[in-house]
Queue: 4 jobs
Job 1
Amino acid sequence: MLSLLNIGLAFFVIAVSPGPANISNATIAMSLGRKISLIYGAGLSVGLVFWGLVAASGFGVILQSSVYLLMTLKVFGGLYLLWLAFLSAKAAVNPDSQSVQAEGNSTSYAGWFVKGIVLNISNPKTVVAWMAALSVGLGANDSTAFLMSGVLVCIGVGFATNALYSVIFSFNGVMAWYQHASRWINGAVSGLFAVAGAGLIRSAFSRESAS
């Protein structure tokens, strides 16, 4: 039980830290409200489940050693983050016509769910996060059942963390503050997405050259 708790705490620390997924979820919660953010967060969580199953199956090790497969995934993920950076920059420059709110009016609930899945699936670094968290409480002699229990704990933590972001950042006071500072927030978010995307692409090619 203590080992599972350690796994859950380790994964919570990783999951709650600011990153592209959490930043985008917080922005959506502030601009579009709790319901859409919860749906988007559920998509993010499903993306986490995908990488969790990959890590638990041992494919995570294969992925880390497969230079071209990992490079392709990182380039795809980096380009997607750069696209998000472009959209955020566009909203910052012209918030009246190119805001997240305008996008929300034309995107279905299913569309937001899929966007969440795509964002987390496009980041293969999540495999490393999963493996790091699981390694905190797993021993060499632990059974497959215990491994799957650890995965289930992390899945629960992932859903709870994304829901926490949706709830906290969708309070009226936070949303009102966003409306006044949306230009600066979107500009900052654009910069963070751009740095993350460029870093992911750079790490893809640096890994290949190192190999």
Job 2
Amino acid sequence: MLFYLTLIFACQLAGELLKVSLGLPVPGPVIGMVLLLAGLLVKGRIPDALAQVGDTLLANLSLLFVPAGVGVMLHVALIGEQALAIGAALIGSTLVTIAVTALIMQALAKPGHSDGER
């Protein structure tokens, strides 16, 4: 179990190193997840111990939001000053996400093929 936790962190570290060394505009942890996915695709399956580590991390995911919550409370005055810009960014990004998702779904949907047909 410790091996797979170390593997997850090693993939994240490799992603960070690739991001910095190649100057990629993608976050290091995302690159690390892609590296982990590639490794799992090569292996052909997800080891049970890795699945257990992943489940444990997901079960405790809320703990990772504590530092973000503390940061929000620390800068609540600044957030209040910028409430209009933050609100506009949230609404705008939500609308763009919905539109892009709809376009992708439309592009990937096969015409005349419903879920019940095989």
Job 3
Amino acid sequence: MLDPRGLFHDAGPLPILIDTDFATNVDDLLAVLFAVGSEKLELAAVTTVHGLPDVRARAARRVLDFVGAFSVPVGAGRAPVQGELFVSGYESTYALPGTDPDHFPSASEVFREVSGQHGDNLVVVAIGPLTNVASWLSEPLEHRPRCVVAMAGCFRKGGTDRNVQSDAVAARRLVEAGIPVIFVGIEICRQVTYDTNDLYEIQKGGNGSELCELLEVQSKNWWNFKGAGFSNPCDPLTLLAFTSPSLFEFQRTDVSFVVGGELNGQTVWSDHDSGQFLRATAVDSERARCAIVSTINRVVRTTGPHS
């Protein structure tokens, strides 16, 4: 039976692959730093999805190199096959020192590599449109992931979230792939906030490093884009759902997604004890916020100014 509390029954950190639309929203940066800082996780790979996948891959590579995660491979993925591309205009503003590779391997190559290394112990964390993940899981695989943890779906009648709406075809293919999925819906994400106080707490231990500067720039870019002084840390919250499941309540459920038409991307679900998937139904907002900040702070404190 799928249960987030059972993900850490093995000794040692749990290997994860993060599939992300990195660099549009500051959330993806926070999520990658959370993964690097978590003692419960081994960041096995990062792959990019959505428009401008190579630009996103370069930004992710620079951040990983800056925090010393040189061995974590980065793969450039695909744009959605259906739906509207969403680009904020800040994707190419990751001004960290570093040398960009001449090219990136494809996201599918990176997935096959880390899947072969970690077998069915690998957890795929999907925090962008589900285009890459659905494609991988529809192919014959020697090793299937332990589960997918997805920032996807809106479990509130009539609502949608951008990740599913960007590629509802892929979202439907994911739930038809026969892989356990833990859903963190947008309605749960909106219960947790990230604002200037949290940014200040993260920056305090950073000794003015370029990483602190980047966090401030990307946070304020996103808040200005939204026209608000805060955002919701959807993506690190998705990782927190299985590193600290005691902060959440979960419900077993069956899920499908509407494809096409005026209702494109809407979530259809049915809660019952024999449901195939899990969805988060509640979160301890304050403890979740503190856990995200403290985990990211661990990375910032150990990443001093670079010359």
Job 4
Amino acid sequence: MKERPILFNGAMVRAILEGRKTVTRRVMKVQPVFRDRLWQVYGAGWGSSVHSVPVVPGHSLAARCPYGQVGDRLWVRESWQDVHPVQVAKGRYAQPGRAGIPGPPGVTYQTIYRADGPYPVVYHCHGHPYRCLQPDPAHLATPAEGGYTGWTPSIHMPRWASRILLEVTAVRVERLQAISRADIRAEGLVCPPELASDDVSPNYRDWYPAAFRALWESTGGDWAGNPWVWVVEFRRVMP
């Protein structure tokens, strides 16, 4: 079993935490090439009428999947930040294991996540803005009008800060536009209640592909190009 990092934005993190998202699609960096009447990549090949290819252990595709194989785990990277749970007049806090950052013994940061809501209030203490959740009134902390309120990008999240661990349950290679409405729901999208009265109305049928296309393109993806993608199904590993 191997562990690998994977990035998700705030909306998808919330969908995972709520149990709505159990699959993700990522573009294959090396796209299959149609040659000799076969789609070919990584030593594998399949016919032109095939739009979905299971990635099974021992298959040449399995060894090249950057998201692992069935049984491997993915730890989620998301936007985050460390804040001071309390305020002190002097010194800096230190996260256990973070070498080179001085601080009083036994005092740690508290990790917060952008997907959970707005950034906490930033307080000034002795003229310096600290990121803290519950400032100590004895140190004259006052809400800061400006100050630092930035989030650390997900790409910079270390393993210790991750709160979500996923286990891969299935992998396949698929054309992007081959996605079904059931798969779009598994991607975390939920049709508005006013359209979800049944599964046959045109509005209901049309909403899912349009919503997923909009989601895909919002992250810079090329829907019209219909690329081949890795389809990774997963379950959340609870603490």
